[in-house]
C-alpha cells in the first residue's frame, strides 16, 4: 500500500469497464483489482473490502457513459466501516439522511461556509443545485447560528428559528475531528412549533392517563384497606361491606341506623374514604354532645360579635368546613326541632347564614347521618320532621348488633387484642376457647364497643399470654354460665367452624380438616354427633 498518497482514491471506467482514470489510493494495483472485482447491484451502492490487511470502504456511482468508484481508508475503530459492513442498504440510508424532505440539513466548515445543503432546503431558500456551495451561511440562511456553533463548539438543540417568515424547530451540532471543531450541521427537527405542541399535548395526555390509573390503583388499595377495618365474616357484615362499596361512589345522603357501639362512625369513614370526596377530611359532628344553645353556631358558624363570648374574628361552622367533603352528623335524632328546620333548608339549596350574619354562604357537602333512635317513631311523636327524614334517608344502612353476629367474636377479639398490644408496645395475648365460648353466650347490650372494653381490661389484668374464662371482667357474667353450658357452647363453635370450612372447601373433608388443623377422624366424629 506504499503507492497511495492519501486515504482516498478514485477510479473511473467506461461502460465496457475500461479504466479511464485512477488517482491516489486507486493507483495501488491490489486496491484497483478489488474495486473492479466488486459488482454493484444498483447504480448507487457501497461495499467494504480488505486489501493487505487494510480495511477499505468502496462507493459506486454509475453515470450515463461512465462509472466512478471511490475508495476510502477506514481507521482501526471506524463506525462508518462497521455500519456499511453490517447494513447492505447503507447507501440508501445515507441518501435518505442527506436528501430527506422531512429533515432538511445544512453543513458548514470551520469558516462557516456552506459545504452541503440538502435539496429540500435549497428549494426552500430558492437556490439552484450547488448554488450555495462555498458561500457563508449567513448569506443564505437568515437568523442562523451555525457559524457561531462552530466557534463555540457547543450544540444548540430544539431552538426556534424564523426563516423566510416561517418558524422552524432546529438543532445545531458541532462536528469534532480529534480535538478540533471542523464544522457544524444544522438540521430541522420539526417543520413548525405546532409539531412540538402536538407532541407536548400527547405527552400530557399520556401523563394524565398514567395519573388516572395510579388513582384507580390507589382507590382499589384504599377500598380494600378501609373496608377491611370493618372486622367480620358473618353474613350480616358481608352484606354491610357490599352495601358500603355500592353506595360510597354515589353522591347521595346516607342514614346509618344501629345501636350504640355497632360502629356507625367506622362505616361513615369507609363511605367517605371510598367516595369522590375523599381528598378532603370528613367533618364529624355529634349532635347529642352539643349544648342546645351552641348547635346553631357549631353548624352554621358565627360572625364577629354575634354573641357574648364569641371569637372576635368569627368562626366557620361545620357546614363551611365540609364544603366539597362529607359531613357526618352523628346522633341526628337528638337534634333540636328548631335546628332541624335550618338543616333542611341547607340540604335543599346548600345555602345558610352564619349566626349574627345577613349574607348567605354556599356549601356543597355530602351528608351521612347516624342514629340509634327509631326516627319513624320520633316523627310520629312530632320530635323529628318528616320532610327532614325523607331528605336524609335516600339510602338507609342498618348496622347489625353484636348479638346478631356472634360468629365474628373470635375475629373481633383477635383484632382488638392485637391493636391494644401495638398501642401499648406489649405482646398480644390470645383468647382461650373457653373464654371465646363464654363471650358468645352474652347479650352484649354495648355491642362492639363493650367487647373491646372487656377484652382490653382482661388483657391488662390476666396472667400469662392467654386470656381464660376466669379472666373476663365482671361485666361479662361468667358466674351465670355453668361448666356444661360452656362445653355445649364450645361444641357449637367447633361445629360451626367445621361447617364453614366445608363450605369454603366445597365439601372436601380432607382439605377442611387440614385447614382447621384437626384429623379427618375427629371431623367425621364431630359431624356424626350433629
SSE diagram, text form:
Layout: E1 8-14, E2 19-24, H1 29-37, E3 44-51, E4 54-62, E5 66-73, H2 79-86, H3 90-99, E6 105-109, E7 114-117, H4 119-124, H5 137-140, H6 146-152, E8 156-163, E9 166-177, E10 180-190, H7 193-228, H8 235-247, E11 254-257, H9 264-273, E12 283-286, H10 295-300, E13 301-302, E14 315-316, H11 318-321, E15 326-330, H12 337-349, E16 351-353, E17 360-362, E18 366-371, H13 375-380, H14 386-392, E19 395-398, H15 409-423, E20 430-431, H16 433-439, H17 447-461, E21 466-467, H18 483-504, H19 509-516, H20 520-528
Parallel strand pairs: 11-18, 11-19, 12-15, 15-18, 20-21
Antiparallel strand pairs: 1-2, 1-5, 3-4, 4-5, 6-7, 6-10, 8-9, 9-10, 13-14, 16-17
Could you explain how this protein is built, in words?
The chain is elongated. With 530 residues, it is α/β, with parallel strands linked by helices. The strands form six sheets. Strands 2-1-5-4-3 form a five-stranded antiparallel sheet, sandwiched between helices. It has a five-stranded antiparallel sheet with strand order 7-6-10-9-8, with helices on both faces. The model is unreliable at 1-5 and 477-483 (pLDDT under 50). It has 20 helices and 21 strands. Helix content is 41%, strand content 22%. The protein folds into four domains: 8-95, Profilin-like, CATH 3.40.1840; 101-191, Beta-Lactamase (2-Layer Sandwich), CATH 3.30.450; 229-400, 3-Layer(aba) Sandwich (Rossmann fold), CATH 3.40.50.300; 403-525, Helicase, Ruva Protein, domain 3 (Orthogonal Bundle).
Amino acid at each position: 500500500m506504499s503507492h497511495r498518497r492519501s486515504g482516498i482514491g478514485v477510479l473511473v471506467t467506461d461502460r465496457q469497464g475500461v479504466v479511464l482514470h485512477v488517482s491516489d489510493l486507486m493507483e495501488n494495483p491490489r486496491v484497483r483489482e478489488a474495486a473492479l472485482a466488486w459488482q454493484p447491484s444498483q447504480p448507487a451502492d457501497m461495499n467494504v473490502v480488505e486489501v493487505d490487511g487494510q480495511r477499505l470502504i468502496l462507493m459506486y456511482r454509475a453515470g450515463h457513459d461512465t462509472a466512478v468508484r471511490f475508495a476510502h481508508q477506514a481507521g482501526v475503530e471506524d463506525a462508518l466501516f462497521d455500519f456499511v459492513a453490517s447494513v447492505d442498504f447503507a447507501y440508501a440510508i445515507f441518501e435518505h439522511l442527506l436528501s430527506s424532505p422531512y429533515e432538511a440539513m445544512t453543513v458548514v466548515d470551520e469558516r462557516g461556509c456552506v459545504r452541503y445543503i440538502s435539496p429540500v432546503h435549497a428549494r426552500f431558500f430558492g437556490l439552484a443545485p450547488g448554488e450555495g456551495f462555498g458561500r457563508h451561511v449567513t448569506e443564505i440562511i437568515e437568523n442562523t447560528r451555525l457559524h457561531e456553533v462552530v466557534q463555540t463548539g457547543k450544540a444548540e438543540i430544539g431552538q426556534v428559528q424564523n426563516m423566510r417568515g416561517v418558524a422552524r424547530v432546529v438543532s445545531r451540532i458541532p462536528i469534532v475531528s480529534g480535538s478540533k471543531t471542523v464544522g457544524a450541521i444544522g438540521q430541522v427537527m420539526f417543520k413548525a412549533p405546532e409539531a412540538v405542541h402536538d407532541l407536548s399535548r400527547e405527552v400530557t395526555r399520556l401523563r394524565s392517563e398514567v395519573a388516572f390509573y395510579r388513582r384507580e390503583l390507589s382507590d382499589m388499595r384504599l377500598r380494600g384497606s378501609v373496608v377491611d377495618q370493618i372486622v367480620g365474616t358473618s353474613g350480616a357484615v358481608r352484606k354491610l361491606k357490599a352495601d358500603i362499596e355500592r353506595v360510597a361512589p354515589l353522591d347521595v345522603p346516607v342514614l346509618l341506623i344501629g345501636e350504640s357501639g355497632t360502629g356507625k362512625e367506622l362505616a361513615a369513614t369507609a363511605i367517605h374514604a371510598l367516595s369522590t370526596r375523599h381528598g378532603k377530611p370528613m367533618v364529624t359532628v355529634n349532635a347529642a354532645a352539643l349544648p342546645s344553645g351552641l348547635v346553631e353556631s357549631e353548624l352554621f358558624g358565627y360572625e364577629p360579635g354575634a354573641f357574648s363570648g364569641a371569637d372576635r374574628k368569627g368562626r366557620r361552622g361545620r357546614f363551611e368546613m365540609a364544603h366539597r367533603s362529607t359531613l357526618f352528623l352523628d346522633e341526628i335524632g337528638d337534634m333540636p326541632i328548631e335546628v332541624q328546620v335550618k338543616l333542611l333548608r341547607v340540604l335543599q339549596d346548600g345555602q345558610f347564614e352564619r349566626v349574627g350574619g345577613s349574607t348567605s354562604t354556599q356549601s356543597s357537602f355530602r351528608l351521612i347521618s347516624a342514629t340509634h333512635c327509631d326516627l319513624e317513631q320520633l316523627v310520629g311523636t312530632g320530635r323529628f320532621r318528616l320532610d327532614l327524614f325523607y331528605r336524609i334517608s335516600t339510602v338507609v344502612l342498618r348496622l347489625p348488633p353484636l348479638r346478631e353476629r356472634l360468629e365474628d367474636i373470635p375475629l373481633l377479639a383477635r383484632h382488638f387484642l392485637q391493636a391494644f398490644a401495638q398501642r401499648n408496645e406489649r405482646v398480644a395475648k390470645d383468647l382461650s376457647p373457653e373464654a371465646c365460648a363464654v363471650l358468645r353466650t352474652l347479650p352484649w347490650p354495648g355491642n362492639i364497643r363493650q367487647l373491646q372494653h372487656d377484652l382490653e381490661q382482661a388483657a391488662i389484668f390476666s396472667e400469662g399470654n392467654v386470656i381464660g374464662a376466669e379472666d373476663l371482667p365482671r361485666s361479662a357474667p361468667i358466674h351465670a354460665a355453668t361448666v356444661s353450658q360452656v362445653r355445649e357452647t364450645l361444641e357449637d363453635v367447633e361445629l360451626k367452624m367445621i361447617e364453614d370450612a366445608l363450605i369454603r372447601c366445597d365439601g372436601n373433608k380432607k382439605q377442611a380438616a387440614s385447614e382447621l388443623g384437626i384429623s379427618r377422624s375427629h371431623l367425621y366424629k364431630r359431624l356424626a354427633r350433629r
